[in-house]
Amino acid sequence: MMSKRIFLLLFLLAFVISHAQNLDSLYVRDNYDLNEYRIKMRDGAELFTVVYTPKDKSKKYPILMNRTCYNASNYTDFNINRYPSKYLIQDGYILVYQDVRGRYMSDGTFDNMRPNIQGNNPRNKKDIDESSDTYDSIEWLIKNIVGNNGRVGMYGVSYPGHYTAMGMIDAHPALKASSPQAPIADFFFDDFHHQGTYLQSYTAAFAVFGYQKDSLTRKPWYIDKIKRFYDDPAADGYDFHLKMGPLKNITEKYHHDNFFWQQIVEHPNYDEFWQKRSIIPHLKNINHAVMTVGGWFDAEDLYGPLTIYKTVEATSPKAKNTIVMGPWDHGGWARETGKTTHNHIYFGDSISTFYQKEIERKFFNHYLKDEGTNTLPEAYMFDTGIKKWESFDKWPPKEIEPVTLYFGENGTLGINESTDEKAVFEYTSDPKKPIPYTSQTEGLTFTPRRFMSDDQREASKRPDVLTFESEILEVDRTLAGEILAALKVSMTGTDADFVVKLIDVYPQNHPQYEHNPENIIMGGYQQLVRSEVFRGRFRNSFEKPEPFVPGEISNVNFQLQDVLHTFKKGHRVMIQIHSTWFPYIDRNPQKYVDNIFKANEEDFIKSTIQVHGSSKVKVGSILENLPLLIHQENMIKD
């Protein structure tokens, strides 16, 4: 049975983690005291909070706080898993872990994306949100935890990164340093969605977030919901999801009782429900230090860190605002693997250790302890092509020239040289035979990660993928900053998705990496550098989708998220375009329906899609001519 196999894997993983923790727990036990508290919020709800205080009482310490939906009880018994790093633990902090409202040992009802109430702090109202819960918790900690120095820092990865960003809004005066890491900024554009498309590969993860607990508990109450997916073997996630059929079958078979799934099903467009849950319009007038952290190969939350950094930069001139982007997948900076690799690509040794010691440690020590000087640049960005850290005074950088990529006949790609605008490139997209998102067979995953630097040679061979390749580069060429795909398309159907990929093509004589198995050939490797998907119905408005008119040329402009990648001499630059990417992204029926989550099998049709020669991809310039999101418009007006 798959369930037995899953539980065996979980047991082995828990053993390995607990063994590693026990080595660190000896230090924590010798140097820290542990207490548990229930902190009362303004509405009377009590949030479960774990607090470690240094045994050395000869000085005062700042508070370092992590608010989580992933069980603060995991941090009891002196077992502290990766957060914070051992360097911060050894430096001496008051360490705080708290279950957010409605999770595990905390009172209340859980909301995956509780709307923010602007101006809700200090305690002048009974209304609650994540910002008010953070404010009330800090207020209690400052007044009740003996030995604190009156300063608080917050950090967290993924959901805890989201809560860190929410704590920055109408912040408590004692909050002096915040580090949202891989934070979710807007659930319609990252994490469970990408620009309105649904990440079908996350389907099993809904079990963790879509059920309320019946009572206070230190153990996950949703295990039986997860088992729905793993009771039967599914070694091939592509095959599993394709046989599942339309998304409405997921509702009927797996998520009929899941409140989070129902919210997504009933709100397929960027309506008021989603607009109220965006962090972006509330990130203003921040006056403390902020260091946003992300990974260039984060398949879950790449939009979040880039957007939060840029928003704080635009709205909060008093904030000391920094961004760090490294060669990691989701949260990879919090764990050290020795040789830093992503999928098949080697980036260097001990890169996470460098981040923890030389970046994160210095950030918190400076702003919370007045130790050292703040020598961090505005943007500390890892170039994933030449594999080295680069510093910038501003991001996106102005000193690197923008590049425009043009599509030409016979699969050519022009760099800053326009090709034949009258050319037409055509492919037939069949949602019943979708393009796999990875060159490797993967089973069911909660969140796929490896494909973000995967080899694209398999996709290049498909007739439903347009592939454009430059000449061999005679000099290094760095692409940096924002990316805009500006497509002109027509089709025989009435809806379509568009996937655009930026790819680094290695020379045929590229040496093998010693960490790779023998069947992974690096000569000619087509490394995915940046990619994104866009649901065509949203080309003019995310709130009010509209069908395409068959045969009519339409503009489809969308963002791919930022990049810093040097294409080295001897390499080539490649662009791919296609319309399915399964099961990372759900299938667009290609026949316009009001709600794809409720589409029927017969709605899925083939469509012949044309990309016209005046299309282009622009890298490095500030984005123009995009359909402005409502929350962005409001931010600009304010």
Structure overview:
It is a single chain. This protein is an alpha+beta fold and 638 residues long. The chain is built from 14 helices and 27 strands. A ten-stranded mixed sheet has the order 1-2-4-3-5-6-9-10-13-14, with helices on both faces. Strands 15, 16, 17, 20, 23, 26 and 27 form a seven-stranded antiparallel sheet that branches. The chain starts with a helix and ends with a helix. The relative contact order is 0.11.
Topology:
Layout: H1 2-31, E1 32-40, E2 46-54, E3 61-68, H2 86-91, E4 94-99, H3 130-144, E5 148-157, H4 159-167, E6 175-181, E7 193-194, E8 197-198, H5 206-209, H6 223-230, H7 237-244, H8 247-253, H9 259-266, H10 272-275, E9 289-295, H11 303-315, E10 320-326, E11 339-342, E12 345-349, H12 351-369, E13 379-383, E14 388-392, E15 403-407, E16 413-415, E17 424-429, H13 457-460, E18 466-469, E19 477-481, E20 483-491, E21 497-505, E22 526-535, E23 554-559, E24 563-567, E25 572-578, E26 607-612, E27 616-619, H14 630-637
Parallel strand pairs: 3-4, 3-5, 5-6, 6-9, 9-10, 10-13
Antiparallel strand pairs: 1-2, 2-4, 7-8, 11-12, 13-14, 15-16, 15-27, 17-26, 18-25, 19-24, 20-23, 20-26, 20-27, 21-22, 21-25
